[in-house]
Every structure is written in C-alpha cells, then in structure tokens.
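Structure ticket #2291
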Amino acid sequence: MRLPLVGLAAATAVVLSACSGGSGAGGASGTDGSGDTGATAAAAPTIKISPAEGSTTVRPDKTVVVTAANGSLEEVTLETDGEQVEGAFNKTRTKWISKQPLKPSTNYTVSAKANGDGGPATATSDFTTDKPKIELAVADVTPGVKGETVGVGMPIMVTFNQAVQDKAAVEAALEVKAQKPVPGAWRWINDRLAIYRTAKFWPAHQTVTFTAHLAGVKGGPEMYGVEDHTAKIKIGAEWVSYVNIKTHMMVVKRDGKTVQTMKISAGNGTTREYTTTSGVHLTMERANPVTMISPGKKEGDPGYYKEIVDHAVRISSSGEYVHSAPWSVGSQGRANVSHGCLNAHPTQAKWYYDNFHRGDVVKIVGTTRALEWNNGWGFWQMPYSQWKKGSALKSKPQSQG
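Resolution: structure written out below.
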C-alpha cells in the first residue's frame, strides 16, 4: 500500500531524529558543541639508562641500570660485539639491572624498549669501560696440558698473575662443572694460588670444565680481571696403588680390579729423611732417568749419595718416587733398604712408569712418618672439613653441575 506523501516524510523525520538522538547522547558526556572531548593524552614512556650515553671511563664492576616511567620495559639488551650481558627485570618491569661484570677497555651498547598508555618508546646508550691500572689474569692452570688424562685424585690448581686481595670476589668467579658432579671446595694457599679439591675422589671416566669468569671482576684496589679462562680436564680410570711398607708389597688397581702386584723396598727408617711417608699420595710427574742426591749433604759427608735411577714417578716434594732399582731386587718383598723411595723390579717399575697419570692415587701404610698435607700434592691428608675452611666464601662449598 502506498503511503501518503505526508506520512512518508513523517516516518523519515522519525528515523533522522533517532540517528541524531544517538549522536547527541554521545555529546552529552561533556562536549561544548565544538567536538573537543576535553581528555588529556597519556604521556609516552620515559627511559633512563645508566651509564649515560658517551661515558668513557666506566668501572668494569659498575652495574648497568635501565628504568622506565609511564610504562614498562619490554626489552633490554646490553652487548658488545654480539655478546650479550645477562640482566634481570623487577616484578613490575620498570627496572632492569645487569648481573655480570663488564669487560675492561670495551665498548658496550644498551638498547631498551618500553610501552605504555602513551605508546611505545626506545632508547640507547653507548659507553666504554675503563682500562684497569692493574690487570688480573690466570697465569696457569694445573692440570692444563691439552689432551692429558689425569687421575681421580687430581686437584685443580689455579695461579694468578697478581696478588689477589678480594679473594671472595675472585673465588666466586671460579666455576667447576663436571659430567659426574661431586662436592668440592677452593682453598687459598697464598695470595696467588687457589686449589680446588673434591670431598671424595673424582668419579672416573669423565670431563671436568674449569672456567674463571674473571673479566671485570675486582681483585683489589684498581685491579680488575681482563679476560675469562677455560680449561678442559679429562679424568681417566681410577688408578689406586696400595702400599704396605711392613709386608713390602704394592698392589695396583684399575677401576677396582687388580692389574699388578709388585714387590717393593721402602725407606730403611734409620732417620726421618729415610722413612717413607704414610698417607694418601698423588703421582706428580715422571722422568727417566732421575739423579738423586742425598738432601743437605755434600760429597765426602757421611751418608752422602748420588744415584741415577730409571723410570721414576714422583709422589712427594720431599724426594719420594716409585722407581726402578735393579741393585735392590734381592731386598724387594723382603726388607726396606732405600733412602725413602719405593723401589721395584726394573720390569715392573717400567710398567708403572708407562701407565702413570698425574693425579693417580698411592695409599701408603706401615710407617711412623705421616705425609704432610703440603708436601707435594698431599692435599688428601687434610680432612675435607678442614680443607674447605680455606675458602674465602662464607657460603656452602661449590659443587659441580
């Protein structure tokens, strides 16, 4: 049915009125008729970075801090030559703090992104760390010979090029990771030497990784570590030699199985010098031949001797070896006639020499003289509870992982 023209116009007016009425409802929430809502735009995030852009003498131990106002941090990167430095955000992500020391004499770049109601924001800072007046580095790690396999008693001995004053900071930067972890602890022997020993012998057949995360670590006034140092240590089979001075026998076991039984002759015991030390020894080095001279005596003195021996394996710093002695074959297995060493039949002494590894264990019993803990590598003579007291850290001893 066709509507009258008047009725159609009225209907159209109603529709238009409804549409303009909806627009008016929106304008009723505080407009002045000009279309301006009167709302204030949210401020964009503000990012602050410390150290500031262009800093050139930043201390390597300085913490890098990034903060955000009017928003939260989405991403923070601190790097040098593509190597990133770890850091952590707070719970609200308004602050980021670096967790690692910085490398000395190095250019760093900080990049940060934030977001908030006022939109995104970015900021960067380039700075350079200072060159230390005293450079701290690892001078030597023993064992550290590439490709060497060592015994289960082997300690890790780290020598520094400077006298360390802040031992706790430096020790905290020393990391030991083992495939078969066991508890262990560092002991400072002096200002330059720290030694790591496990509570029990290393589990055999594994690789241990030592890392000194030294770069940027403060070792003393104006002294900073200049570089990290890593060494791979291969632990071989469990070689343990059991020596009984009273029965004049030496039994060598590999991974718990006897592989050699040797008749030996030990120190005659007439003096302290000529008494073989009892206790847990470690094999230290070998040579063929070795010239042995009586300690503290010169030619012509009573008791002076100078002998050349073959296939000698050192087990203490006081001059004790396992070595060949063809002149004592008649006494081996029967009597102790040496000046303190363990001598054996030439064939068996050569076998021992050929199968030696630094850090193999030699347990000696049957004498009145005990091996001193600092005589060579006699570190196992000190109880572990006492050993770990030599650590500079007050927390629990380090264990590998």
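Closing remark: The longest helix spans residues 5-27.
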